[in-house]
């Protein structure tokens, strides 16, 4: 069979099968029908339940808790329940799900990614069978929400060697002391994964701290200019006692932490593509409706040039993360491949939302036209889960045969 015969070919108008306008090369059609149906259900939920309210909640810096039950009702995380017969979906499905969420709103995508990717992903990868059965069923149904505590007030990019939160064994308990910063979902999470350094062995360990544990406090970070719906928190751990049963049994070094970040870093790249898709589609619709000099501005050469640049960035980035997902599904992807995708896609995202804002001119800074929210939120996505500069050092070390430029 020829390569051409193996590739999906959309028939008729581009949107005939419900593809997003920005999915110009029909990447979504790579999914099997069962996974496409789930993406369609998620898209409808986002269109009817999320899109109409996000501007209001973003402006107020509040979280729409009424959406949580709806996410659970979609059943898209049921497979994570150890007793579920559902097979684990492909990484391409997971990526397109992240794209779809960010296409609607980056804050909602971040909430979802923290809960399912960082918190649930850590328990899936590092928990014992008993721990998975204890926490994952309720988390998969969104009845319990998770958070992930790694970043610290004085440690971001250097957290691997600079982790200051400590864990001290005391009989059948561990005493956690330290602080975390920028922890999404932490103000209302039921379970928070906390990474701490064993005071005796200096190994990095993972713990699940449950809501209302004495010695654990989470305070909302105010006055953010981006991802305002996300409830980021400063966490203080002051003599916080956690039972040995809550120590993640397969999290025994920073390599285990890094493995989680390698997985979720690709999800951030997918989010960046989703933001580009959303910004492009808003700009395209606006250009068709905005009349100047007696006709829609979409008919002017310079406007079409901006639209094509945006579409090119989104399409190229989607191709990169689609291939990355295929490598993940094959079990052969590497750290530097996730790092390159995160660095490249978030850079192109920043550029693309800037062009969308430019096309909308003054209306681009008004929340009513949505683009202002995309521009602001892109700044956070550009930085979190590892800055562009750190990603380039990971890739640079790989392509130069192991020559590390990291400061020691």
Q: H/E element string?
A: HHHHHHHEHEEEEEEHEEHHHH
CATH class of the largest domain: Mainly Alpha
Tell me the count of domains. 3
CATH architecture identity of the largest domain:
Up-down Bundle
The beta-strand count equals 9
Low-confidence spans: pLDDT under 50, at least 5 residues? 1-15
How many angstroms separate the termini? 52 Å
Overall radius of gyration: 22 Å
CATH topology call of the largest domain: Butyryl-CoA Dehydrogenase, subunit A, domain 3
Structural class: alpha+beta
Mean pLDDT: 92
Strand percentage: 5-15%
Assign an overall shape. Answer: globular
Structure description:
- The radius of gyration is 22 Å and the shape is globular.
- It has helices at residues 3-6, 33-50, 54-60, 66-74, 91-104, 106-126, 129-140, 159-162, 254-289, 301-330, 335-360, 371-383, 388-399; strands at residues 146-149, 166-170, 173-183, 191-198, 204-210, 216-220, 233-243, 291-292, 295-296.
- It starts with a helix and ends in a 9-residue tail after the last helix.
- The chain has three domains: 3-140, Orthogonal Bundle (Butyryl-Coa Dehydrogenase, subunit A, domain 1); 146-253, Beta Barrel (Butyryl-CoA Dehydrogenase, subunit A, domain 2); 255-399, Butyryl-CoA Dehydrogenase, subunit A, domain 3 (Up-down Bundle), CATH 1.20.140.10.
- The longest helix has 36 residues, at 254-289.
- It is α+β, with helices and mostly antiparallel strands.
- The strands form two sheets. Strands 1, 2, 3, 4, 5, 6 and 7 form a seven-stranded mixed sheet that branches. It has a two-stranded antiparallel ribbon with strand order 8-9.
- Helices cover 50% and strands 13% of the residues.
């Amino acid at each position: 069979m020829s390569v051409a015969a193996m590739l999906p070919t959309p028939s008729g108008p581009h949107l005939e099968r419900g593809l997003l306008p920005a999915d110009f090369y029909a990447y979504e059609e790579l999914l099997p029908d069962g996974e496409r149906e789930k993406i369609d259900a998620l898209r409808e939920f986002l269109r009817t339940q999320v899109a109409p309210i996000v501007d209001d909640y973003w402006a107020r810096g509040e979280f729409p808790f009424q959406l949580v039950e709806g996410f659970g009702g979609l059943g898209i995380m049921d497979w994570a329940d150890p007793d579920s017969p559902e097979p684990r979906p492909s990484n391409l499905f997971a990526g397109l799900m992240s794209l779809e969420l960010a296409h609607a709103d980056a804050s909602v995508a971040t909430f979802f990614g923290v809960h399912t990717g960082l918190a649930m992903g850590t328990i899936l990868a590092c928990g014992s069978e008993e721990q998975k059965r204890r926490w994952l069923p309720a988390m998969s149904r969104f009845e319990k929400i998770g958070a992930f505590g790694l970043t610290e007030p004085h440690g971001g990019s250097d957290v691997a060697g600079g982790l200051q939160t400590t864990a001290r064994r005391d009989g059948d308990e561990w005493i956690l002391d330290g602080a975390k910063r920028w922890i999404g979902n932490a103000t209302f999470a039921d379970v928070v994964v906390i990474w701490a350094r064993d005071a005796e062995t200096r190994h990095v360990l993972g713990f699940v701290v449950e809501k209302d544990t004495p010695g654990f406090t989470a305070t909302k970070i105010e006055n953010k200019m981006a991802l305002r719906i996300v409830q980021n928190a400063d966490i203080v751990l002051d003599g916080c006692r956690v039972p040995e049963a809550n120590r993640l049994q397969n999290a025994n070094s920073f390599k285990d932490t890094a493995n989680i970040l390698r997985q979720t870093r690709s999800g951030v790249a997918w989010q960046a593509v989703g933001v580009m898709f959303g910004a492009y589609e808003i700009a395209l619709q606006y250009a068709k409706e905005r009349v100047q000099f007696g006709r829609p501005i979409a008919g002017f050469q310079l406007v079409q040039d901006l639209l094509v640049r945006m579409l090119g960035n989104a399409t190229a980035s989607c191709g990169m993360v689609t291939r990355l997902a295929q490598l993940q599904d094959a079990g052969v992807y590497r750290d530097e491949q996730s790092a390159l995708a995160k660095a490249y896609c978030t850079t192109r995202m920043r550029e693309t939302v800037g062009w969308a804002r430019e096309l909308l001119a003054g209306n681009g800074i008004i929340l009513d036209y949505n683009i202002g929210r995309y521009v602001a939120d892109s700044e956070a996505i550009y930085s979190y889960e590892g800055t562009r500069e750190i990603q380039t050092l990971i890739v640079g070390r790989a392509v130069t045969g192991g020559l590390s430029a990291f400061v020691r």
